[in-house]
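Narrative of accomplishments. A recurring question from our advisory board has been how the design workflow behaves on a single, concrete structure rather than in aggregate. To address it, we present the structure tokens for one chain from the evaluation set, followed by the sequence designed for it. No filtering or post-editing was applied between the two.
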């Protein structure tokens, strides 16, 4: 089923958004008006981006899934959970229940990798709660995963639609790397990969590495070496979009199943984190990654050549971004190969990296999309 049935046309969408406005949840400056007809926040493009959402839900993943499913600019072809924030035994049912809550049982959900390519799984239950959704006890999903694996499903969709499909990957890159490894001629058929991961300004799980790349550095390396057009939305920008109490209250006040579920998850996670760390905000890493596909002006992108560290004892998963050449490596060991046999890598940008963000614009978009009536 290809049509996004949430918003049948632009007028419908504007009408439903205006109800939210009447409820006082959002400022009128968000909407196109006689005075500001150029405000295109809610104007869906004529042709939606066709995406596969690869994710490890995860509190911010949940919000990202909701944002994608309620945005007419995106057509979500599949959701492919991977292990990460919590094990696959939780990310899979979480993905199913989130898709179900959004009323999108038409979207195939396929089980992805249960372990990183070569490492033991390290989870982030400390940040997302023991079940990945802040500890909120949702009902068992009725929706079932499709019989194909995530790898099989991604390959089939991409091969049937060459050059049309972008992968939006907001968890460890294991599923995506497995697709590239298992189908070595598929890379040119993938339109682009939009990644939440990495950082050019220090990590969040080690001083060097961002969580998604830390969990599966080998997978991240395969993706960055693939030659596929990449967009990297890393901690440089995502740690600047911090959701706070007033925004959670706006979600709780809106009366639709998605805003209610989002409000519950965020509230429970806030309460949990507050007890352990006094945190009063939580970064919306994954929703920002989805948002920049809907509204590119929420971030500023810059060309970089990005490489992923895989061998460091303390730094595996670190992303290093070169803004220009020369691209230098650590000096060879005395006992290693002579330098002449390992030439300097070429400087050739392989990723557009988000370097600036407009947090207010992002939150206006996020709240408008999640809080509008279904
Ligand atoms: C990333 O790690 C996960 O915990 C979040 O869901 C996000 O994808 C941020 O480092
Ligand atoms: Ca994630």
């Amino acid at each position: 089923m290809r049509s996004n049935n949430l918003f049948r046309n632009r007028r419908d969408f504007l009408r439903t958004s205006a109800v939210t406005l009447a409820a006082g949840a959002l400022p009128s400056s968000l909407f196109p008006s006689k005075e500001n007809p150029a405000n295109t926040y809610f104007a869906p493009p004529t042709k939606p981006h066709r995406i596969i959402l690869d994710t490890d839900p995860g509190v911010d993943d949940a919000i990202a899934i909701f944002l994608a499913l309620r945005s007419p600019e995106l057509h979500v072809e599949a959701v492919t959970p991977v292990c990460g924030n919590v094990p696959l035994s939780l990310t899979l049912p979480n993905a199913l229940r989130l898709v179900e809550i959004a009323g999108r049982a038409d979207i195939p959900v396929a089980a992805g990798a249960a372990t990183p390519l070569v490492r033991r799984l390290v989870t982030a239950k400390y940040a997302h709660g023991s079940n990945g959704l802040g500890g909120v006890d949702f009902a068992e999903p009725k929706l079932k995963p499709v019989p194909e694996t995530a790898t099989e499903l991604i390959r089939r969709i991409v091969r049937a639609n060459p050059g049309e499909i972008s992968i939006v990957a907001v968890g460890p890159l294991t599923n995506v790397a497995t697709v590239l490894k298992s189908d070595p001629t598929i890379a040119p058929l993938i339109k682009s990969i939009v990644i939440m991961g990495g950082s050019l300004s220090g990590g969040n799980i080690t001083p060097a590495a961002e969580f998604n790349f830390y969990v599966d550095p080998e997978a991240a390396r395969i993706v960055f070496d693939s030659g596929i057009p990449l967009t990297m939305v890393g901690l440089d920008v995502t740690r600047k979009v911090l959701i706070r109490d007033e925004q959670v209250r706006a979600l709780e006040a809106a009366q639709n199943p998605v805003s209610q579920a989002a409000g519950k998850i965020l509230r429970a996670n806030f309460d949990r984190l507050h007890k352990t760390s006094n945190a009063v905000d939580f970064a919306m890493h994954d929703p920002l990654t989805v948002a920049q596909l809907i509204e590119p002006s929420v971030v500023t992108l810059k060309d970089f050549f990005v490489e992923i560290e895989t061998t460091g004892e303390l730094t595996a998963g670190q992303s290093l971004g070169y803004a220009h050449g020369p691209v230098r490596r650590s000096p060879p060991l005395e006992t290693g190969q002579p330098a002449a046999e390992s030439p300097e890598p070429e400087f050739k940008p392989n990723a557009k990296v988000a370097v600036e963000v407009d947090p207010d614009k992002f939150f206006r978009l996020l709240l408008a999309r999640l809080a509008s009536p279904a």
